[in-house]
Amino acid sequence: MDEIIARIVTNLETQLPVSLSFLRDLETLLDFTLNTNDTIDLDNFYNELSSRNLSLSLLTNAISSAMDSGLSSRNSILASKVYLSLLLSPNAPVFTLFTPMAFLSLLRAIRLAIKRPSFASGEGSVPPSLGRKKRGRRNIGGNKNRVENRDSVESEAEEGGYDVKDLFFLLDKLEMVMGLVHLNRFPDCLKALVQTVCEIPTTAVEFWGNLASFRKLCELCARVLSEALKAEHGKQEDTAAVVLKALAPLILLSKSQVRSFALGFVVNDMVGMCESSSDIKMAVANMPKYLVQRAPDKSEPRALAVDSIMEIVKALDFEYQGEFADYIIKMTQGKGQFRLLAVDLVPVFITSLRSPLGFDMVDAVESSWGTRLLEALVQRCSDLTAAIRARALTNLAQVVVSLSGNEKSRTVLKEVMGFGYEGTDGINKILKLCCMDEKAAVRKAALLLISKLTAHLGGELDEELLKTVGMACSDPLVSIRKMAISALSEAFRTYSSSLVTRVWMHSIPRLISDNETSIQEECEKLFSELVLARISRAGLSCSANYDCFPRDTNSKGNYLDTEAELLYPEGLLPLLKEISDGEVSPWVKKICLSLGRKKKLQTKIATALQSVIRTSESLWLNHSMSIEKWTAPAGAWFLLSEVSAFLPKAVDWEFLHHHWLLLDKYKPVSELQSPSQQGFVDEEKVDVEPSSVAWVGDRVFLLQTISNVAMELPPEPAADLAQNFLKRLEGFNMHSTEVNAHVKALRTLCKRKALNSEEANSLVMRWVNQLQSKASQVLDLYMSKISDANKENALLTPQTTVSWKERRTADSVSKLLAQAIIAIYTIGSLVIVCPSVNLKTIVPTIHTIITSRNSDPKSSKLPGLAASVKQSAPSLYIQAWLTMGKICLVDAKLAKRYLPLFVQELEKSDCAAIRNNIVVMMADFCVRYTAMVDCYMSKITKCLRDPCELVRRQTFILLSRLLQRDYVKWRGVLFLRFLLCLVDDSDKIRQLADFLFGNILKAKAPLLAYNSFVEAIFVLNDCNAHTGHSNSNSSCNEKCLFSIRGNDENSRSQRMHIYSTLLKQMAQEHLLATFAKVCAEILAAASDGMLSLEDSAGQSVLQDALLILSSKEIRIQSNQGSSSDAADIEEGGDCGALTAASKGRAITQAVRKGLIQNAIPIFIELKRLLESKNSPLIGSLMDCLRILLKDYKNEIDDILVADRQLQKELLYDMQKYESMKAKNSAVDAVATMQRSEAHRSPCVTKEPSSNTVKGKLPKELHSNSKVASAVADAVAAVTARSVLREINKGASTPLSAMSVPKLKSRTGQQPGIATTGGGRPTELIESLRRRQSFDSDDDN
Fold it and tell me: What stretches pass through the bilayer (predicted)?
């Protein structure tokens, strides 16, 4: 050892840089001393240093310089080991050897060493960076280069590498040194130590690949931090704060291993120390609040931060948990980022902690923070920021699911949210607004919450909310529609009330025609589960329930209805009733057709429907009610007729035969008559009961069912039934709704009776010709009777009394007319069934009827002249047009001849039924003869403005279908005429139009709104400036019909609604192009004189253009696509969409600047023109310019940078206009208050104050400084006028009541009394009366 000591001392004396041999010699000396616990050699070393006048600080500085050298990790680590061993050696002068600089060098060496672990160590691993570097070198050059590079790397590892065991040794020894050296005297060293130890896991996880080594490293770091938290190293509260701040970035990291280390140390180690140290407990309790301030904004890191915060909170005492809950409640009222974080914390907080609502606590008041957190979360559901609203709704749904496990929690949830309680708005009001929110994420979250509330809390939704959810089923976004379907179906699955049933049936089945295939499939699935399966269960159980019911033959009326409701479970009767509704039945037909084709209809549904009808009949007879007044439950026969087409074997023939005989034998007393018959009988006798309509409908559906199952009937009953049907048809005494059913059933029975198709066709042709011949005879007979009657009465003097013979003749003509109506309707049905029937004999008769309009108005005034068929038999006239349309559908030559006649009748007819029928016929003609009808499309579209709502709605629906199927093109005026349906008087038409423009056209013709937008402005204002020529009278009439001309508020709001609807369909680039087109084609035209501003229509066009340019729909924010709008991305995760969006934003910025460069000169020129003409449109122009200055501020500043004078003029004009506007608003408010005060008693009249007047103004003006100044001026002026008025009256004024020194007048009169003549006080008052008002320009 003496030689080693001599070498060490010699090296110190030379004061050369420390070598590796020096460090190894010193390591040998210290290891020997520590291992043998023999201090003789070490004492000799200290003595030798002392004898040569070498201080220990020289040794410390040498070792410190070696640790700081950084030439190689091996030297630094070796020097660090020597330094720590020196401090831990027996009898070592620790306070002399320990210096802050050496300790900081030690920490720096450790930090650098973490990044370069050993290559050769079994516990370490090759760093990824070096591995990549080595591979990169091998790719350059040949084999020789690869060998040289490998050798250089290996030599580098030998010289600069180290074994990770040395690092473990250092951290272990460091912990031991901290037991000797108390760092309370060195706070900087303590902070550096904490920072270094906390950085070690973060750095190691990037460079180390061995998980076992990393875990061991984290354990050593935790031990060092635990040692640092002891009281010997300073105040524990300060040390704990330093440790927690250093660990906060690690806790918020997304790297799971580092985050686990930091969280584990806080939750396990530090919380364990809290029992012995209140200072550490307080620091840990404040750690969640600190993490809240450091939480990131992005969603995924924020979610990890929430989990980390809750891990710490769960480890705290209950007292501190309550404090943090109060802190979260305060966060919900803070800034946006804190509100969003609080909304994420609330559900995790409630669901993670034990008994958040205090049910298991002795003192439940202490746990009321759970209820307050719920209330805060409910309040955030109506937050101003859309992202927060969406998150709050989603998290509230999560809370509802987690707390719905017991009855107490459900009760608290209902009370807090006000859900399920009548007379309280609560969450229902919030949900109504959120379901109609402009942000998709909010709507989706609201529907999710509704679904969870219905499924888990058991509260029934109110009517308005149900209707709102039903409207959401037609949302433009697919995901919203799916969520609305789920929410509404969950309510229907839970409750069977008539309200829920009605909303579900009117909202879900119609989605069978949705463009999205998955929604169609979901609609079919839900209809099978919630409708057909429910009917099957209830129908099969109703017969068993009927056997258990007591028989009460004396009960009638309401009791029968109550018994029927009890007999049919699961709300079966309201469900069947809604199925038969006119708006629902078409969709039910389509669903049944789709399910039948897919073979998803089960036999039990047909069996259940038969059971429902049988039970209803038995219940009726059990109460001794007359069978002729019985009708089956509404919708039962209809649904059976639809499903029987695919389940013919499931329908019992005996059942059908029995009810056919029943319905055929017993007819209601007041059976529904045809319109012609009702017109010829006394009004007192015409009393059609609802049962009559239901009876006829049941017979029609029964006939359809019979035709569906006809192929399964035995031959003999089928023949008898066919003969019966033919006999009934030949009588021409049925209602028209039954004729089609009889004809179709008869055709089906003929096919069943025939042996082959040829025989079936001949049978059908035989009875069709037979029926057509008899119908023709009936028509000819009626027309001859009318002709004979007209000839007899042509020149006779009118009689005052009617003879018995004439009355008898009239009765016979009336009966013949009823037969003629059914006969002509039967002809139309026969044409559809058998297009090849010979109609040469019947067409002239029908032609005579439809052309029998009396064109001479004078002839109607002459007594005895024959009236036209339209006047004498309007029902026959209507049916004649309908039958002629059916004939034209099968005969192209005839259609070409009669098409102008149809169009003429459509324009001139005053009968809504005829116009409606002709519109339907023209739609069918358009499919069959597209080119032939195309030239009449402008005439057909005039029906969109028909006075009858039914005709308008029918026209809109039919034309929409033709447009979707491309039979009609969106060209010419067709699109512009459709626009007025958006503001139709009918709510149903407006809803249909919104769906057409918002869903269908947006996908099918996305450029249509953009291409026609400017033209729509001119057309809606009835302005011809864009065409350049005047129009004919007929064209002017059509333009007036399809325009909303006028400057009144109603007309302007209707036009703006149309404009906003079109703008919402445009993409961003189209909005910018539309902005440019409006500026170029309207504003520039007005400034150039091409658009006359003297005309009211031209003024309306310009005003509409200014309102459009200032509307929010045409604006494109420069920060679109930011994180606040990320919640609106549909089914997010599409990288291509995000890339396109970022490119679009860059292009948008460039286009915005170019756009505004062209627009500002136009605005300036137009402003000068309007000012020269003193036009009232200057107000609209200034409003628009003010919004542009705010929205395009950066672009306008760049444009006007070269013309500062112009910029100042624009700003001056804007400020002057706003000041004048504020002054007018204040004056109007003061005048309104004065008028209201005038009606009060004089004793309570008081002058208005600034605050009172400000309260009368709109809320958006409260924060306007100019408005506040104008209000103060207006109030001061009113007060001055009031004082002068009181002085004139000689009354006391507020000034006279003031305690001020009183001066004697110059003439010696008493103070306060005005002098007469030339006294000064009178002159002063007169000058005040004549005081002029000079208003400032508010240059500032």
Answer: 82-107
